Amino acid sequence: MRRSQTLVLLVALLTLSHDARAQPKLPMIGFMGQGTASAEGQRAAAFVQRLRELGWIEGQNVAIEFRWAEGRSERSAEIASEFVKLKVDVIATVGTPQVLAAKQATSSVPIVSAAMGDPVGTGLVPNLARPGGNVTGLSAQAPDLAGKRLELLREAVPGLQRLGLAGNVENPLIILELRELETAGRALGLHVVTAELRRAEDIAPAIDALKDRADALYVAQDLLTVTNRHRINILALGARLPVMHASRENIDAGGLMSYGPSYPVLFRRAADYVDKILRGTKASELPIEQPTTFELVVNATTAKALGLTIPPTLLARADEVIE
Known about the structure:
The chain is α/β, with parallel strands linked by helices. It has helices at 3-22, 41-53, 73-86, 96-105, 142-156, 172-187, 203-210, 223-227, 229-238, 249-252, 263-278, 300-305, 312-317, and strands spanning 28-33, 63-68, 90-93, 111-116, 135-139, 162-168, 191-197, 216-219, 243-245, 257-260, 295-299, 320-322. It has 13 helices and twelve strands.
């Protein structure tokens, strides 16, 4: 190579290096999804859209690193560690196990969760008004809503006497919810049978075992059950078990009914938290909110397949009936 060409190349490389150093580092958000990109696309889209409304444009003034746990709890720990190495400015996620994984990976990076079932009961924060530490966001009130869901399920299934419960007992929140459900079910005069789940392979035998022991099934929602919602609903339909879920995404997947907060709405609100943190507010200073609106969704197609007639009074109260 000629000397002149070498000098030109060196100047070009030095210029590029200078430009790279001159460009300010964009604030970085680490987004940890529970399942897969396709399964949680609506949640992520709601989060990104709200950020745009608040002035944060991906690739322009903020970077977002998306990672997906794909229904595996060990993957959440891996993602949290990766985010710490990437030096993200805030971690956005959903679900108690994901928050626990992130909290174990870092005590300094702010963690915003779109939904935590019972952040105080599971030890994530000392109280909702002053969470302290690096965890904040929203509570989905999972244990608090258990009794209401059972009342709705009993109304939808006339003659309900035997209630099947299924939930991931590796999740501390789900243990709390199952206990609340057992208490609420017995208070309603129901015979309660609980099927403990720990992995996807437990789902089929659990539902098969409940087939002749329950008149309906309540599925406690977390990473494991959301990821396997199609399988759960198909197996439950085959076992002639009407299923109550916590959110409408499970009803789109064939469940009978759900009652709970809207997750896209929760993710929009989580974006508000991220916005405040990126602008300088400490996570410890942001009170954890509880949802104020809940939606009742009924799948009339599933009801028909089960030979179940949903009372008109219940259908009239539903926010949406899927035909």
